[in-house]
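About this split. The held-out portion is used to measure sequence recovery: a designer receives only the structure tokens and must propose an amino acid at every position. Recovery is the fraction of positions where the proposal matches the reference. Here is one held-out target exactly as it appears in the evaluation file.
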């Protein structure tokens, strides 16, 4: 069931998490499916609900900096902590940092890795929930594994149905793409997933940053530094292609277009057109993209065509998700 974001429902949600249950809650990026990060059995339920492979670790969500010491190992790496000091100005916000793990965090959370991804969400509903919980909350996106992340409470309900009893409704997610994931345990730091805190933002505070899997780790799922880098991810049921990948003459009968506006506004020959921005405003594109894919996926189309944008700034994250949805 969907519950509005009221003080009583936040209290209820915190009590459910404390008792070892899972539930969906809003963040500024996408909706998360949360469990008490210190409770291995509760966290195991998340993997089961999502059908998530056990080798894909979760992000741990915190309310305040004093909680950080319960989650990361402050003695493990001086270099990582120095980097953390330079980059934590982006907290609270859509940035997850991979740091040495505190032994208190059960192995199921981190898929057995000796590192843990942490973030402080900025969404007021997420913050109120985390404050009420007092314990850290492990949460992946609240979708079935390898599917498009939910950016509304209704998306969560549509996708997870009765697998989740409690969905806290915080409205549509403002960012709309999952958080940036940056590993601070490598030197230079490595961008594992682009997001709204852009590569340019990170570089301006940290200097040189590597991107993607290390060369020796490519193409071996278990060996990837971030299993979420798997090529096929974010896939709707309907086949999806980037604009230009298929010649219009080869389109099947029912084709939907997700348009970013701007110069490529030609929408002839499409069964349905959804314009998510009129002027290629990338913040707007990011915030509405997954919703548009969800909606098109329910239209019984033969194909979804999506506009593209330059791979810089937020465009890097947008194109990352689109390329993987189209893979
Ligand atoms: O915006 C977000 O990050 C959302 C909201 C709910 O916070 N969460 C989210 O979680 O997108 P998820 O599980 O869908 O993606 C987590 C990503 C995966 O790519 C995972 O492999 C990576 O973070 N990750 C988590 N822990 C890691 C670790 N210790 N080392 C490397 N990658 C890690
Ligand atoms: Mg996910």
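Reference sequence for scoring:
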């Amino acid at each position: 069931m969907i519950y509005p974001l009221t003080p009583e429902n936040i209290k209820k949600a915190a009590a459910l998490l404390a008792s070892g249950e899972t539930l969906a809650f809003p963040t500024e990026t996408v909706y998360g499916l949360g469990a008490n990060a210190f409770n291995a059995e509760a966290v195991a339920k998340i993997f089961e609900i999502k059908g998530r492979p056990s080798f894909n670790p979760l992000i741990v969500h915190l309310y305040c900096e004093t909680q950080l010491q319960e989650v990361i190992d402050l003695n493990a790496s001086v270099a990582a902590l120095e980097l953390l000091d330079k980059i934590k100005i982006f907290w609270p916000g859509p940035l997850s940092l991979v740091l040495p793990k505190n032994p208190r965090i059960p192995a199921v959370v981190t898929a057995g890795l000796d590192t843990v991804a942490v973030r402080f969400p900025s969404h007021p509903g997420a913050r109120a929930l985390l404050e009420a919980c007092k314990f850290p909350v492990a949460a992946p996106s609240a979708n079935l594994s390898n599917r498009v992340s939910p950016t509304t409470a209704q998306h969560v309900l549509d996708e997870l149905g009765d697998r989740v009893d409690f969905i806290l409704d915080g409205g549509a997610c403002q960012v709309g793409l999952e958080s940036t994931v940056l590993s601070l345990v490598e030197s230079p730091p490595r961008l594992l997933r682009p997001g709204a805190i852009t590569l340019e933002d990170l570089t301006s505070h940290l200097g040189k940053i590597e991107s993607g899997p290390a060369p020796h780790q490519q193409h071996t799922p278990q060996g990837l530094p971030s299993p979420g880098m798997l090529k096929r991810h974010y896939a709707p049921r309907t086949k999806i292609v980037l604009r230009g990948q298929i010649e219009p003459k080869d389109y099947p009968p029912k084709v939907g277009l997700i348009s970013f506006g701007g110069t490529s506004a030609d929408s002839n020959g499409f069964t349905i057109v959804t314009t998510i921005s009129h002027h290629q405003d990338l913040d707007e594109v990011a915030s509405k993209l997954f919703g548009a894919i969800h909606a098109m996926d329910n239209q019984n189309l033969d194909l979804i065509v999506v506009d593209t944008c330059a791979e810089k700034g937020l465009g890097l994250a947008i194109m990352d998700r689109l390329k993987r949805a189209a893979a």
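Annotator remark: Residues 12 and 244 are 49 Å apart (CA to CA).
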